[in-house]
Amino acid sequence: MSRQPTAYSRQILLAGAAVLACWPTGPLAAQGSSFDRSRPPIVASPPAFTMPTVQTARLGNGLTIQLVEMHELPLVEVDVMIRNAGARMDGDLAGLATFTAGMLDEGAGTRDALGIASEVAYLGAVLGAGADWDNTEIELSAPRRTLVQALDLLADIVLRPRFTASEVQKQRDLRMANIIASRDEPNAVNGLVLNALVFPDGHPFHRPAGGDSSSTARLDSATVRGFYGRTFVPDRTTIVITGDITMGEARELLTARFGSWAQGGPGQPPATAAQLPAPVDRATTIYLVDKPGAAQSVIALARPGIERSSADYYAVQVMNTILGGSFSSRLNTNLRETRGWTYGAGSGFAYRPVPGPFRASASVRTDVTDSSLMEFKREMELIRDSLVTPQELARAQAYLALGLPADFETTGQMADQVGELLRFGLPFTYWNGYVQNVMKVTRQDVQRVARKYLDTSRMTIVIVGDLPKIRAGIDATKIGPVQVTDINGQPVQ
Questions:
Q1: What is the phi/psi pair of residue 305, to 5°?
Q2: Is 386 helix (H, G, I), strand (E, B) or coil?
Q3: What angle do CA 139, 105, 136 make, to 5 degrees?
Q4: In order of start, what are the domains of the chain with their CATH numbers?
Q5: Which candidate, 350, 271, 274, 302, places its Cα nearest to that of 86?
Q6: Which among 165, 102, 160, 163 is positioned nearest to 136, based on CA atoms?
Q7: Is the dihedral of CA 318, 324, 327, 330 positive or negative?
Q8: Smallest Cα–Cα separation from 66: which of 235, 247, 254?
Q9: Over its length of 493 residues, how does the chain's per-residue pLDDT go in tens digits?
Q10: Helix axis angle, 443-453 relative to 313-323, nearest 10°?
């Protein structure tokens, strides 16, 4: 049945006819007809990136301010970074740093947890606290007009947290429940087992940053207060501020709130990589963790990683972008786009002040677990054994270089990038040379670092899946000896 055009659709048709009537039929049309649409347009070289000026000031108690002015919008980001207050400082109580950081906004000053949340919402702000392996960070984003009140709240959280016994018990019970629930989550189990196998006992990465059920049961108010007192000191604190504010304004506001913060002792610095047990660099071994009834298997291949300050950093970044660090990478194209065995496959190096692991991973269908493992191995050997194509190199370089400015668009992103430089002891001019260094990487550089860091004969491979369905296929790959472990990486029969 035909439908009569409506008045609106008739207007569209008439407008289209008018455009066509005005379409050039002379030289411009001839020029358009000669355009070769079979060849992609030539993209110009990525422009150099210039890092905005980072201003520095220091209060009398040692607290440092790093500020980048961004006056395009009336927003301000304030990130408090406390060095040597991360999970590497847990000692024998894994999870203490992350738990302490999580308690900061569960009651501070005159407000309980609900009062803090209500105040944040009223001010139109965003507030969060957490700890990684090295630092505790409290991040505040607020409109310029409510910044003064938001900084009052921030000062309470940093300087006057409550750590009441009742709140500590509540949060401890919640963490315990999450730990128990994670034992049933294959991706979480894979990560736990992998770290326990790659990093030996005595290395901080051997245990999860969030702790385990045994260490969590030992958390109490006194323990949290003790960690806070040892690590939260002004001379190990840097406040990164980005947004619609000047250094004069920032210094006045922060002095009024943090200037009387008493200095602490020098504290015990975390162990360096040289002082820690070396990661395990074993001959390729496959570790299986049984997950009965699993529809998918979680595969991860790991090796010890590299220092962020390594001279190979740029070549490694380009190499990994081609291998598994982007959607168009070889691993994802192979396992997802070509074979349809997974929703996504990738790889990456965990950069920390103490090097984390290299890890390539995917969740794949149970019935193709062995085949997927072989494809991982094949792709890693291929990038070692032959040069990448010029097109792959150019695409990876453009992916990294052209994506850099997007990491500096918002006040929060700018603060994150300044924080990364501080975390790794890099100069504030570092990003100015990033594009040029990426573009200098050659195909030979990519192959060189692949051979250096992706030795497939020395891999720790962890697979979490339905053991009776995958064991025979994994044995048949002959990639390496196969062991069955529990969720802590301990051998089982």
A1: -90, -160
A2: coil
A3: 50
A4: 55-263 (3.30.830.10), 278-484 (3.30.830.10)
A5: 271
A6: 102
A7: positive
A8: 247
A9: 444 444 444 444 444 444 444 445 555 444 555 767 888 777 678 888 999 999 999 999 999 999 999 999 999 999 999 999 999 999 999 999 999 999 999 999 999 999 999 999 999 999 999 999 999 999 999 999 999 999 999 999 999 999 999 999 999 999 999 999 999 999 999 999 999 999 999 999 999 999 999 999 999 999 999 999 999 999 999 999 999 999 999 999 999 999 999 887 666 788 888 899 999 999 999 999 999 999 999 999 999 999 999 999 999 999 999 999 999 999 999 999 999 999 999 999 999 989 999 999 999 999 999 999 999 999 999 999 999 999 999 999 999 999 999 999 999 999 999 999 999 999 999 999 999 999 999 999 999 999 999 999 999 999 999 999 999 999 999 999 999 999 989 999 7
A10: 90
All residues at 6 or more sequence positions from 399 whose CB lies less than 8 Å from its CB, including other chains? 321, 326
Distance CA 75, CA 412 (A): 10
Strand 482-484 vs strand 285-290: parallel, antiparallel, or unpaired?
parallel
pTM above 0.85, yes or no: yes
Name the residue with tokens 């979680």. Answer: 298
Rounded distance between C-alpha atoms, residue 132 and residue 213, angstroms? 19
Please report where in the chains the tokens 């066509």 appear, as a residue.
Answer: 20
Q: First and final CA of the chain: distance in angstroms?
A: 70
Nearest one of 312, 278, 262 to 203, comparing CA atoms: 278
Query: What's the rounded Cα separation, in Å, for the pair 110 and 97?
Result: 24
Q: Which of 167, 168, 200 is nearest to 95 (CA)?
A: 168
Q: CB-based burial of residue 278 (10 Å sphere; 0-12 exposed, 13-18 middle, 19+ buried)? A: exposed
